[in-house]
Each structure stands twice: as C-alpha cells, then as structure tokens.
Amino acid sequence: MTSRRDPTPFLPLTAAAFHVLLALADGPKHGYSILKDVEERTGGDVRLSTGTLYGLIKRFLDDELIVEMSSDDQRRRPYKLTALGRDVAEAEAARLEKMVRAARGVHLLSRTRTS
Amino acid sequence: MTEHGYRWLLRLLPRSFREEFADEMTTVFAEQRRRMQGVRAVLLPWSAFAEIAALSVRLRADYWRHDLRHAVRSLRRQKTFTIAAVATLALALGPMTAVLSLVKGVLLNPLPGAADIDRIVYAWSENPARNRFEFPWSELNFLDHRSRKIGLTAFGAFASTSATIGGDSPQQVEGAWMSEDMFDVLGVRVARGRPFSKEDVQPGAAPTIILSHRFARARFGQADPVGHTLMVDGRPTAVIGVLPEGFEFPASYGNFWQPLVIDPAESTRSQTYLRTMGRLAPGATLETVERQMNVVAEDLQREYPQANAGYRVKLNPASVQLTRNARRIITVVGFAAGAIFLLACTNIASLVLVRTAARQAEFSVRTALGASAARLSRQLIVEHLLLAVLAALAAIGVMEGLRRLLLLGNLMPADQIQRASVGASPVLMLIGLTMITGMTLGWIVSRRAAQSGLAAATQRTATQTRTGTRLRHALVALEVGAAVMLLFAAGLLLQSASRLLATGTGFDADNVITFQVTLPMDRYDGPAKRLRFVEAVVDRLQNVPGVSAAASGAYGPMGSMRATRRFAIVGKPVPPPGSEPIAIDLPASPTYAQVMGLRLLEGRWISEHDRPDSPPVVVISESFARQHFAGERAVGKRLQYYSGSPTAPPAPSPEIVGIVSDVRQFGVAEREAPQMYVPHAQRVWGFSSFFVRAHGDPRSVLASLPAAVHAVDRDRPLERVRTIGELIDNSTADRRALSGLLLVAAVVALLISTIGVYGVTASTTASRRRELAIRAAIGADRRTLVRLVITQAMVAAAAGVVAGLGGALTVSSVLESVLFEVDARDPWTSGLVGLGLLAICLIATYLPARKAVSGSPAVTLNEPA
Lengths: 115, 865
What we know:
The complex is a heterodimer of chains A (about 120) and B (about 850).
Chain A: H1 15-25, E1 29-30, H2 31-41, H3 50-62, E2 66-68, E3 78-81, H4 83-105
Antiparallel strand pairs in A: 1-3, 2-3
Helix pairs in contact in A: 1-2, 1-4
Chain B: H1 3-9, H2 15-35, H3 38-77, H4 79-107, E1 120-127, E2 132-135, E3 137-138, H5 139-147, E4 152-165, E5 171-178, H6 182-186, E6 192-193, E7 208-211, H7 213-220, E8 229-232, E9 235-242, E10 256-259, E11 272-280, H8 286-303, H9 305-308, E12 312-317, H10 318-322, H11 324-368, H12 373-408, H13 414-419, H14 424-451, H15 454-458, H16 462-502, E13 512-518, H17 527-542, E14 547-553, E15 564-569, E16 582-588, H18 592-596, E17 600-603, E18 617-621, H19 622-628, E19 639-641, E20 655-660, E21 675-679, E22 687-694, H20 705-710, E23 719-723, H21 724-767, H22 769-777, H23 782-811, H24 813-816, H25 827-854, H26 857-862
Parallel strand pairs in B: 5-10, 7-9, 16-21, 18-20
Antiparallel strand pairs in B: 1-2, 1-11, 1-12, 3-11, 4-5, 4-11, 6-9, 7-10, 8-9, 13-22, 13-23, 14-22, 15-16, 15-19, 17-20, 18-21
Helix pairs in contact in B: 3-12, 4-11, 4-12, 4-14, 11-14, 11-16, 11-21, 12-14, 16-21, 16-23, 16-25, 21-25, 23-25
C-alpha cells in the first residue's frame, strides 16, 4: 500500500468546505449539483454562492482533495473525491464528533437534535 | 443580472482562474438564477459582485503567497547569485539613499526651528576694489541700514562670542550677541520667558541672557531658569528666556544669546565684526532688496568716505549660506554615490541576464507544464522584488555606516548629519528605489523568459545570441565608463590630499600646545591690566616643568579669528580711500617666533624692550616684503595705520624692524597673506592666546597649565586647548576624509566593474562556445579566436573609457571647489585611469576567452546545446 498523505494539516474545514466534500462523498458531481445537494442536505441553511464554490474547487484541486473527470461538456465538468479528499472529510467528521461528544459530557446537549 | 453581466463581473478574477472556471461558473450562475425568486433575485447583482470581489482578493493573496514561497526557494537554490546581487544592490542603494536623506535633512531643512527660511537673507558687506568679499559689518553701518531699510520686515545683527558663565566652577561657553530683532528675522519665538526688548540693548541696560534649551537643561535640569540670575563674565545677569528645543544658532554650539548693545557715541565704522540677516517683506525679492540696500550704501559712502569708500551690500539666501559647505560635500558624495549606483545597476542587470540565460531550461519546462506567461513573469517579478527588499535591509546598514563615516571624518557639522539620520522618510525613499529596481529587474528577466518560449529552449537562434552579445557589450561599456568617472575623481582628490599634506604650514611647532583665555572688561578694563595678566601667565608657564619656552599672542593659528589692518607706507603715495592695502594683524610676544618656529630673515624680532610706551615697531612677513617692497629694503621703513574714527587719537606709525618667514596662519589650503607682527605689549586685546613649547610630547605638560593660569587669576578658564599639530590636522581633516571616502568608493567601483566585465565576458564567450568550436573545427587557430573574443570585448571597454573620461571632465567642475593645487582636468590622472582600466579589462576578458577555446571542438559540438 502506498503511504497516504496525512489529512490533519487540512483541518479544521470551514462549514462550506466540509459540505462540498460531503456532497462529493456519494459520487462525482458537477458544480450546480453540488450547490443543490448542499442546499437540500442542510434544508436550505447553507446556500453556497457560485464564487465560494469555485474558490473551494480551485483550492481542492490544488491540494489534490478532488480531481476533475473528463467530460464532453466543458461547461459541466464533474469532480470526484480523491482518497486524500475522503480522508480529510472523514477526519473532519471525526473531529466534529469528538467535539459533540465533549459537549454532551458537560450536558450542553441533553438529547439528539433532529432539526 | 444576465449571464452576460455575470461574465463581465468575472473579469475581476485573476486570468488563470477565469480561463479555467469562467464557463462553468456562468452555467451554474444561470441555473441558480432561474430558480431564484423574491428579494434574493433582486439583490442578486449585488451579492454576486460582493462574492466575486471577495474571491478575487482571496485568490490573489493566495497567488502572492505562493509566488513568495517560490521566490524564497529559488533564491535559496542560488546562494552565490543571491549574495552577490544583494551585496551589489546594497552598495548601490545605501549611498544613494544616504545622499537623498542628506539632501532632505540638510539642504531642504537648513535651520530647524526657523520659520519660512526662504524669506531669510544673509547680508554681507563687500569691497571688490579691496578684494574683500562676504565681509562683516561695522555697528554704525548696521544701524544706518536698519533705520533706512526697505523691503525687509526685520533686519538684525549678531556676532559669535564666548563667555565665562560662573559660579564655583566657571565654564567658558560659546554663544552669540544679537540685536533685539534677530528673533523676528529668524521667525523664532522663545519657548519660555520673553525675547530681547529695545530696553535690553540700550547702553547701560541691566544685563540679560537667553539660553538654548540644551544649555538650560544642562545647567538647571527640569527647573525653569527664567527669573534666575547667572554670573556671566563676572556680572550678575538675568535669565529672561529659553529658546525652543532643537533651535541652535548661529551654529550648533550656540548655548546662549545676549543682547547686542551698541553705543553710537563709542562706536566706529572701521571695526567690522557683525553679521547681519534680514527677513524679506511680502512681495519683496532678494534682488530688489539688494538694489535698495546698495542705494543706501552709496549714501553711506558719500557720508563717510574714509571708512566706507568702495563698499557694497551683497545678499545671499540663508538656505544657501547655511549649507554652503554641506552642499559641496553632498555634491561630491552624491557624485560618487551616483556613479556606484549606475555601476551596480549595470552589474546587476548583467548578472541577472546571465542567470536568466542559465534558467531558460527551467522556464520552458514550466511553460510546458502549463504556467502562463503572465504567471511566470509575476513569479519572476516577485522573486526580484524579494531580492530588492533583502538588499534594502542591507542598504540601511550601508547607509548608517556612511553617515558615521561622515561624522567621523568631521566633514560636515555634526548637527546637520544628525538631522539626516535613518528615519522614516529615507527608508521610504529606499523602499521606493528598491521597488523600482526590483520591478525593473523582474521585468527584464520576464521579457527574456517570454522570448525564450518552449521553442527557444531547445534551439537558440543566431539573432538572439547576437542581440544578447550586443546588450552585454553595452553593459560593459557603461560599467567601465562609470568606473572611470569615479576613479578619475578619486585620483584627483588623492593627489589633492597628498599635496595638502606635503605642504608645510611654515610653523615648526610640533611640540607646542596652545590655549586661549578671555579677559572680561569688568576686571581687565584697560591694556595695562590685561598686559600684566598676560605677562604674569607667560612667566609662570615658562617655569612649568617640561616646558622649554612659552609665548603669548592675540590669537592662534588655524582658527576663525582673523584681524586685519589698513595701512599706508610712509614716503610712498597715499592710496585713495577704499583701496588702502591691508595685512593680517598679529600681536605677538618676544618669545613667539622662537616657540612657533618662525625664521628671522632680516633685522630683528620683537624684543622685551618693545614696551607700551616705547616707539611702535612691526615685523613683517616675507610675502608682505615681496608685495610692498619689491627690490628695496623694507627694514627701517615706516608704516602708517589708519585711526578708527575721525575723533580717535592719531594712529601710530610703526617702524619695520624685521622680516620673518611666511606661515599659513588660517589653514594649509589658504594662500599666504601678508602678515605683520606687532608687540603684544603694544596691542593687547580682551582675549589672549598662549603658546607653550614642551621638551617632548606637548600633552605631557597639559595637566600643569591650568595651575599656571589660576595662580594669576583663579576665575579664568582655559579655552580651546589644542596642540598645534591637532589644529593643523583639523584644518586638513575634511579634505583628507573626503578623499578617503572617494577612495573607498573608487575601490568598490573598481571591484564591481572588474567582476562585471569578467562576468559578462565569461557568459558571452560561454554562449559562443559552439560558434567558436565551429570556427576552430574549420581551421581557425586558437590565438586568432582568443584575439577575436578579446577585441570585441575591448572595443566595448574602450568605448566605455572614452565615454567615462568625457563624463568625468564634464562634471569635474563640481570637484574644483574641494581640490587643492590640482587641475580638475589633470591629463595625467585621466590618462592613467583610462590605461589602468583598459589593462584590467584585458585581464578580465583574456581569462574567459582562453577558457572558451581551450576545449576540443569535437567535444563542444557534441554537447547538448
């Protein structure tokens, strides 16, 4: 097995960055579907602007968290998580979980919120 | 907002980003917009703008950060280049900034604290017929001009003085007398207390004094000195004011000001010691005021023909007058800094060109990997900006060092140099210069990098090589030219300094120490009392262990004190008023000639029999005899002095009793002026100098001197204690330091240009190795090839020498004022410098040329290009 890069230098992620990675976790998507996915997943709480999205895409491409897949339509290029991208998303999720657990420990969260 | 509008908005983003994502973003934006309703749809243009602007800023910051990291890596990889470039740039920028800060601190701000310096003028009297220029004023002429002034809001007079400020340990300090309007002229207000009033300057007024901030602080600490009484020259004197901090006038040692009290009844027009300044009235110009003052001067000539014949008024702007010496030094230093700047810049340019040539492969690989030309050039600019910033930091060190050198060499008044300290604005200037340098370098390199696209990396065309070679040869010529200019100037100044040092002063006074004592009027009213003091002190000094002889005189050599006297020669036609000859008036004691090492050429020296009541005598100098008694015997003739005013008793008519050797009384660089020595006993002033010859090191008797003076009067401090050697050294210090400075500059220049010429030839020949190998392969022999390379480089060098000498001769007039007995167009210096540099260039081109043709042509031609 080739040694994988350590995901920790990329942490913590901003909410927008985390949601973009989540959107790509279940398969390649192009820009607009990422936006829609994020909006639906968060019930409209997080609405990314086009600029924010492509700023993130550019950075993820540079950092090799995602790659661009070949496509016939240059105006709708799909992007895919790399192994490193997946590791980063997982590490961030684990980090968030630890924080939630810590909050439970001091009874800041008495029950699981569903909203 | 339409898609078209959005696309237009995307232009805010960096191009590379836009090229990659603009299409996609527009698609996404269009789909988003289609779904949007209500307020969000209305606000869409604004939110889109805000978001794109923010993204643009973020992306650009990212790019810069990335480029900077890249630049650091790149510079680190090429340590030798980085160090060479930073050092050269620092040497170029440091002196240049130092000069700029001197210009700003000294020339543009000559008198801190004075208001509207541009309206202040210095007024001098002059008498062209008598070859007197920038001469001080008599009290009465000053008063007349002041009462008839036109076009001046204020006209004041001042004179430097020193006073014993007492108490238990009396202290001799420098200060000035000034007329009550001087503060109006200067536009300065007292920080505490009050300025001088009309009453303060009346004869018999209670004595008052105003202190400088520094002196007040030293004497009174934090307490307010106004209202206190100080003992000044033995008289209780009221402190009435303190001037603002940092204001020092007439020089940096101005500690106090006392009112200039003029009693017209007692004053004469022949005693000239006042300097005057005026403030131009609104609308008046220096020229109009000068014309009007000369109308008054003509009236005064008619009214007082005996004292005023031939005199005129000359005005100088105060800003020019106060910085005249500094201006000269700054010009010379600026000239050197400019030449080094030029040199270093050409050197850097050729260094960078050579390096770019070596990096062509790197650029083409990166272009191939998708870096845009814009991106590449931005990275290069960042890289060179970083280089320039590093150089700026080093340059601050160079600048501070240079400032200290100026301070050390005593080239300019210390306060002026202090004012030019490394402050915010010189650093800003430095940063400006740096930015320009970095941008220019980066631009040059990126242009060349762009030229060498992907294609050029594998195959360089002949034209490009030729353009490159021509450019490099132009750089060689420039560099050699700048070096020639500097070396020429340094050569002249060195010659000047060595002539100066070789020129004797005429004194034989290596073991002599001198000091001055002031004899205030209150205790020493009348020549008899003063003479008693002087003779008693000389007597005591002679008995100090280690002292071989002691003498007295009115004033010592190499100082600012200079007394002259008008005379006529008895038995010769009386010269018309205004054109009487003058000579330096030097009261001296019977032992003075022996102590100072004057040689007696004819007759006798002053003796102890020349008493106040015995017949007046005078001993003249060689040049005096030559000038006024050519071909006749001077000893035995009589002079006739002029009396100060018509009411004064008739002036004495002394007999010439001897002739002594000439001395350079006022500095090595001054020409001999006719001198006349008169017995100190017959002419003793309110201050006196003493000259003590020791058996060995004059410093060894230093400690015993105060006791000898205090045994006679314990309240008299010793002033200006110096060995004659020190005084002579000081008088040549500025020229020596200046030539030292230029020598350093010239050595730096020589070094930079040798390295530059070598580097350029080396890289040029290296880039021609294939061509040379082909020539060798088809039968050219090595010596011909070496000659070919050398000839081409030497033609460039020779062009540089010619241009440099031409430039040097054009600007050599700036040097004229600081040269001593050296022609600013000296052909020997120019010839030597020119040939010397050509020789150095020959060596610098021969070595790389030989190396280029030394390999086997077959091997060279098989190397990858």
